[in-house]
Amino acid sequence: MGELASALDALAAEDLHAMVAPQLLDRSAELVRARNRIDAELARTVRVADLTQAPEHDGLKTMRSWLRGHARLSPSAAGQLVRNGRVLEHLPAVAAGCAAGEITAEQVSVLAPVVSPENVAAAAEQGVDLAEVDAVLAETAATRQHAHLGRVVHHYLERLDPDGSEPDPTEQRSLRMTKHSDGSLSGAFDLDAVGGEKVQSVLESFVQANRPAGDLRTRAQQLGDALVQWADVTLASGQAPIMRTVKPHVIVLIDVEDLADPATGPGAGEMGFGAVISAARARWLACDGTISRVVMGPDGEVLDHGRTKRIVPPGLRRAVEVQERHCVFAGCEAPTHWCDVHHVQEWVLHEGPTSLENSALLCERHHTKVHHGFRVERQPDGRWRTWRPDGTEILVLQRITGGTERARTG
Length: 410
What we know:
The protein is α+β, with helices and mostly antiparallel strands. Among the domains are: 19-162, no CATH class; 310-408, no CATH class. It is 45% helix and 14% strand. It has helices at residues 2-12, 21-51, 63-70, 75-90, 92-99, 105-110, 117-125, 130-143, 146-160, 193-209, 219-237, 256-260, 279-286, 314-324, 364-370, and strands at residues 174-179, 185-190, 252-254, 269-271, 276-277, 290-291, 294-296, 302-305, 309-310, 339-343, 359-363, 375-378, 384-387, 393-394, 396-399, 405-408. Residues 29-322 form the DUF222 domain. Residues 158-183 are annotated as: Disordered. InterPro entries: DUF222 (IPR003870), HNH_nuc (IPR003615). It holds the Pfam family DUF222.
């Protein structure tokens, strides 16, 4: 282990910026192989430690709990490592491929169902030669793309139990979300094939319908925006299940002084699930929301609460939708049901009127942009123009008769 640490120290000391492209690519390939070998040794060690009850030495029952507490692994990472150790024990050809650096830990985790107790028992009952299966899986993992390995495993399991009952899809679905200190979320989910197809279809419809000119978002960012847009549409439609007599909606608690202060006001608003946001973000949410006044006493007791007021009444929203038809930001044509009604002159800071003339239809992405320096303005002829924070105008190219192009505003 000391030699391994010394080798890693030597690698860390190398000047990567002095290397040319072929050297960097070769180095990356070698490091992947080395990582695969280390992952294999780690999984093998964890398996033996589990079988010999080594965690009892530190007062713990399983290696899964030891990895979470002592190695600070997440529950999912610890579980995967324990499962991989079992896979390598039962599939020696796969283990050899890992030891040679040809098979990754992620590929090994795909093989876990093959060596589950029930599937091993089913293979023995049917006279399946697990050694042959092991050889095929090892060859596939070492030579084919990652997705192909999953299809091979799925095919094997279907052949192993062709007359078995169709699994309950709900048992294959899970969603794990982790909230961070700033209120942001990260997570992972597992879906059955049909459920996954439904989710992909909905997300892809949002992605393809919202591709404004000059879009520089990555695929992952587009899907993330699509997921939030899906939530927006669901909340706006009023079709989500009612929670304790109240339709689900986004809630923000903020002092009226912070809401009216033009400063950004970090950490001024508290959301319904505990996230803390800035006053600027709260003003953005309030553009097309409702306001409820609550007067609090010095000890936190509610002294008075006023009626809830809709900032943009339904009639005005319908008029704005009919007039604008889509997001007015240059280059974007997101449909009306994806959009908020934005006060061009802010109703909180600038006492802008809630009127048709002062209302702009903006999708979530561009509503955020407008609250962070961008600007939209309606011209006397009813057309909208868009400016960047530096004062330059965003122009969109439009092809006209004769094959030439000219710039136009949004």
